Amino acid sequence: MSLKIVLLVIFILATGTGIYHVFKPLPQDLSFRGPERPLLDARLLTDMTYRDASGRVQMEHEIFDEVIRLIGQAEKLIVVDMFLFNDSRPDDSYRPLSEQLTEALIARGQQVDGLRIAVITDPLNTFYGGQKSPYFERLRDAGIPVIETALNELRDSNPLWSAGWRLCCQWFGNSDTSGWLPNLMDGGEVTLRSYLALPNFKANHRKVLIVDEAERLRGVITSANPHDGSSKHSNVALSFTGPAVNDLLVSEQAVLALSGATLNLAADVLPDAFPGQVEDTVARVVTEAKILDSALAMVNSAPKGAKLDLAMFYLAHRELVTAFIEAHDRGVNVRVLLDPNKEAFGHEKSGIPNRQVAMELTQADITVRWCNTHGEQCHSKMLIRHDPDDRWQLLMGSANFTRRNLDDLNLETDILVRGSTITPLFENASSFFDRQWQAGPGKTPALSLPYETYADHSRIRYWRYRFMETTGLSTF
CA 409 to CA 234: how far, in whole Å? Predict the structure, then answer.
């Protein structure tokens, strides 16, 4: 067989593999859209880091205090699904969230006989099987299953790399005892196979907690990770009870199933039917591409005179960028608060994609401000809509507004809330946004800065962002 024929066969195999794994059917119950359910006892939790007038770091953090409290009172069920769960951090000034969460889970499991616990996470925490996690080993030694999500079952977000990787490399698995290359992410040594898996750029990016609480289930959907290096980030979370938590549990069982795991549930840990209950605030759980559908519906149906406030770590999805511009053009008041994408865990970043999208939005006369970060990230993912008749909607959770997060590539979980009258939940969400938006410059503390601070009008970097977003050759 000639070399040309061999190369042609390899090209056809790679192309076919790439196309299939971009469009293949999703596993059951992914890209989930639950029905609207009464939302009960909803509590907005926020984390905020800023500098005071003297330049000292101030942290007002609630999310993992509440997560650990809820774990500490569970009697029947704990399901944790968290993307980053490790102690990588720039220095010792960061909160040891990974240690605290591990200790809380082990302690509660030892205190309560028959407590069902499942920890779901992303294999990035073991560098795709190339290194042991001391936290996962401790949990498993305590009888708590840790499920590293089977990412190969998901569609490929970077097919230019993944097609070849699936043909040549996925079959070799990995080893956590034979590393010989430095782990640049967290010290130690890993195999070449870990580095070859990294450019697949796919993740279980969810951040979810489900526990029983006083004969009901309580869910927490958040943008925060139990990751030491992320412990200073600004984040948001919604803690809630009601029948929507059952839908959240269904969505998590889907992740267990695709990873070949199960969670045996007793009938008495699935309450919250609430027959005949009427509430003026309702919510639905949405995952993967159903988050995009929800966001587009919120923006595209916003009437003239409505307000749209977006606080987002990454904004890059082309449909949403266009939708925000069109909403502004028809008389919707749009405000966009973005992370400047200038640093991550002690490393400088290029500003892509937020600075390029901010240029587009500003040119369309949409007001953009930057979070005033100093090493930490403005990591919230929250969209608020307030209509002239005081109806409102809130979309929040794990998903950045990017192709990878919203096009059935990553695993993501958000919650969409809708209310017909103003409630404390809406007021708290609006107050959190307004506080970041209005404070600075000229106010103390300066929590946000004007667009000009990080304006980037480079056409080269703009088209670089567009290429990265389209092809998947990016980490956002």
Answer: 25
Kindly list the distances between the CA atom of residue 19 and the CA atoms of 14, 163, 196, 203, 252, in Å, as whole numbers in the listed order: 9, 8, 20, 19, 28
Contacts within 8 Å (CB) and 24+ apart, 363-367: 364/325, 364/328, 364/329, 365/328, 366/324, 366/325, 366/328, 366/334, 366/335, 366/336, 367/334, 367/335, 367/336, 367/451
Q: How confident is the model at residue 377 (pLDDT cuts 50, 70, 90)?
A: very high
Based on the fold, state whether residues 174 and 80 are members of the same structural domain.
yes
Q: Which of 423, 422, 389 is nearest to 304 (CA)?
A: 389
Q: pLDDT at residue 169 above 50?
A: yes
Using an 8 Å Cβ cutoff, are 121 and 102 in contact? no
Supply the pLDDT for residue 268. Answer: 43
CB-based contacts of 205, cutoff 8 Å, min separation 6: 83, 122, 398, 399, 405, 410, 411, 412
**How much helix, strand and coil, in percent to the nearest 5, is found in the chain?**
35, 25, 40
pLDDT at 10: 82
Per the CB < 8 A criterion, the answer to whether 367 and 328 are in contact is no
Nearest to 136 by CA among 152, 120, 150: 120
| pLDDT in the model for residue 329 | 98
Domain count, the chain: 2
Structural domain of 43:
37-267
Domain identity same for 256 and 165: yes
Domain containing residue 113: CATH number: 3.30.870.10
More confident residue, 155 or 55: 155
Sign of dihedral through CA atoms 433, 437, 442, 447? positive
pTM of the model: 0.95
Residues sharing a CB contact under 8 Å with residue 118, sequence separation 6 or more, in sequence order: 78, 79, 80, 144, 145, 147, 256, 261, 263
Mean pLDDT, range 239-259, rounded to an integer: 95
Share of the chain above pLDDT 70, in %: 95
Residue where a domain stops, chosen among 207, 235, 267: 267
223, 207 Cβ separation under 8 angstroms: yes
Do 247 and 353 lie in one domain? The reply is: no
- Tell me: the pLDDT tens digits for 404-443? 999 999 999 999 999 999 999 999 999 999 999 987 556 6
Domain end among 208, 241, 267: 267
Question: Does 177 reside within a domain?
Answer: yes
**Among all chains, which residue has been given the structure tokens 């050759």?**
473
Confidence band of 7 (pLDDT split at 50, 70, 90): confident
Predicted confidence (pLDDT) at residue 449 exceeds the cutoff of 80: yes
Pair 256, 186 in one domain: yes
**Cβ–Cβ < 8 Å for 349, 342:** yes
Query: What is the phi/psi pair of residue 425, to 5°?
Result: -60, -50
